[in-house]
Amino acid sequence: MNAEAKRLPIVDVINLRKRYGLVQALKGISFSIGNGEIVGFLGPNGAGKSTTLRILSGIIAADSGEAKVCGVDLAEEEGEVRKHIGFLAENNPLPEDLRVIEYLNFRANLKGLAGSRKRERIRLALDACDLERRISERKIGNLSKGFRQRVGIADALLAEPRLVILDEPTIGLDPRQSAITRKMMERLRGDVSFILSSHILSEVEACCDRMIILSHGQIVAEGTMHDLQKMFINKTVFEIVSSNRRIDLHRAVRQIDQNCELLYDDPVEISKKSRYTFSTTEGEGKAEEILRALVQNELLSISEFQISRPDLETIFLRATKKNWENQDYLGRRKISRPKLLDSPSIHLK
Amino acid sequence: MSGYWHIFRHELFGLFISPATYVASFYFLALLGIGFNFFIEGFARTDWILPPISSLIVGLTFGAPALVPFLTMRSFAEERRLGTLETLMSAPVDPFALVLGKWSASLIFFILICMLAFCFPLLLWLGFPDQAISLGFNQVEHWVGGFIFLSAFGASFTAVGIFSSSLTKNQMVAGMLTFTLLTLYLAVMAFNFGEYRDFGSPEGLDEFIDICLGSLNQGLSKAQHFAVGIIDVSTVLHQIVLSLLFLTLATLKIERLKH
Predict the structure, then answer these.
(1) Nearest CA of chain A to the CA of B154: how many Å?
(2) Is B1 an 8 Å CB contact of chain A?
(3) A59 at interface of B, judged by CB pairs closer than 8 A
(4) Residue A89 and residue B86: Cβ atoms within 8 Å?
């Protein structure tokens, strides 16, 4: 996030709470989203993602807390806020008996577009979502899941929103259609802020500037991929492909870093060579130092060296694990037990 | 009232493209037409003191519980079931405008069906002008009075339907609820038919209740005035109040969905 984006948050949420009967869906979450940012909203089912997105789009009201979109308070001027938002609901409900163009026309009218501007915006939204004229004349009920999803996204983009909220936009889409959605976000990157809720972590990792991970109505982690890697994975893992024996390689590595551990005793064999996985607590700098030392060692033959960075799935699982163990099925805090984490160095918000 | 006009047009369009509406309207008009035919044929032998056109008004009023559910049950129940209400609420639309838009589309369709029903005496007049004149079909005030009565009661009937539809996700339940409420309402009016009280000198609780309810329980008695071309303004106002009450309740229900 650049400095300007920090100064001008498009979304500013402070201590947002929401309860459904006995279940406390949101327990006072706070976050902000900068202008033009693409933010991934992650969390297990029932974490409060959709509730947060529905509050931000003005569909439901929060019990307490403050939410501002484009500087306008949701509680005070909900109608004004809706003008700046494009929203794609989870499961993308659409009227089956309307044609695509009729539906977009209706939605454009509701969003206050008229005349040539309306026609122009509909055309641009159809283009942005790769919806050809032939498709726009068809009934929504006869469209495939992928096209329906694109109609929903086209609707979200209609009124030049400053914030687009996409709740599971690529659910049920084939890889090509998911790529079209990602491409659309890439095209609009910088002009429009996106909040993208998805369970497809690779997709979030690929297109989001920042991630917010929720669990049981709380934000358990927030930041860029790099921040999250630093926050949750305290060990640097690297792989070495070598034709040397395990014991020789391990000894050479230990000479540089006493704490470096070989993770698996049985290395993976690749064409008469072995792939060894080590981990160090000293960071990537130490791993690079080990590489230099190994390359200079004439007795060793190193053909590959790779520092493996943890993917978003690993981070997600770590981030949500503690919170998951601490809550009961209603999202209430359980009585704390002495040993909950497998890694004592995980920092939770 | 942001979005009212667009919601209204969209809903009206939805009613025009819905096969269920056409099927219901066809059977309703067909039964009404057959009934009207029998009534006109046997009119000379009946002791009906009102103009024959009033039979259409009564037929449309008592047939409304069967017709109105088909016009209103989809409005909110179907939107809630499909989840499209959520999408609708994400646009800058005022909830009251949403309710009003859906209600006015249903009302316009109801009035349209009433106008189609009025084509029966019109056709009779065109085909057999002498007989039509002898039956009093040339009295414009009868037509106007009947039309205003049906519009006023249609407004409250469709408002009840819209309110019922806002209560549930199941359009069948919404339809049954509308039918039940309208039947009850008509039963109350039927039981009070002819029990005219002087509202000018209220004595006791009964009179006070009558003054408060006005045409709400004396509607059919007031129909006699409209049938001869006397426009009872209080009846129209009562129906407007009743419509506003149910529309407000529907709006509150829609607002409540936010919490």
Answers:
(1) 27
(2) no
(3) yes
(4) yes
User: Which residues of chain A neighbour B6 with C-beta distances below 8 Å?
Assistant: 106, 109-110
Nearest to B84 among A60, A61, A93 (CB): A93
Q: What pLDDT is recorded for position B101?
A: 95
**Does residue A332 fall inside a structural domain?**
no
ipTM of the complex: 0.81
Is the CB of B94 less than 8 angstroms away from the CB of A93? Answer: no
The answer to whether the Cα torsion of A265, A268, A273, A277 is positive or negative is negative
Is A282 a domain residue? yes
**What is the C-alpha to C-alpha distance for residues A181 and A149, in angstroms, rounded to an integer?**
9
pLDDT score for B248: 96
> Residue A127: which domain range?
3-224
Q: Do A60 and B258 touch (CB under 8 A)?
A: yes
The residue assigned the tokens 């979030």 is A204
Closest CA to B181 of B256, B105, B18, B72: B72
Separation between Cα atoms, residue A316 and residue A321, nearest integer Å: 8
Higher pLDDT, B193 or A238: A238
Separation between Cα atoms, residue B158 and residue A103, nearest integer Å: 25
Look up tokens 């059977």; give the residue: B27
Tell which phi-psi region holds residue A38, choosing left (phi > 0), alpha (psi between -120 and 50) or beta: beta
Q: Examine the domain organization and report whether A116 and A211 are in the same domain.
A: yes
pLDDT digits (tens, 9 = 90+) for B41-50: 877 677 777 7
User: How many domains is chain B partitioned into structurally?
Assistant: 1
What pTM was computed for the model? 0.79
Write out chain B residues lying below 8 Å of A79, CB-based. 2, 92, 94
**Tell me, what CATH number does A269's domain have?**
3.30.70.260
**Domain, as residue range, for B173:** 4-256
Is residue A35 over pLDDT 90?
no
Least confident of A41-50, A320-329, B114-123: A320-329
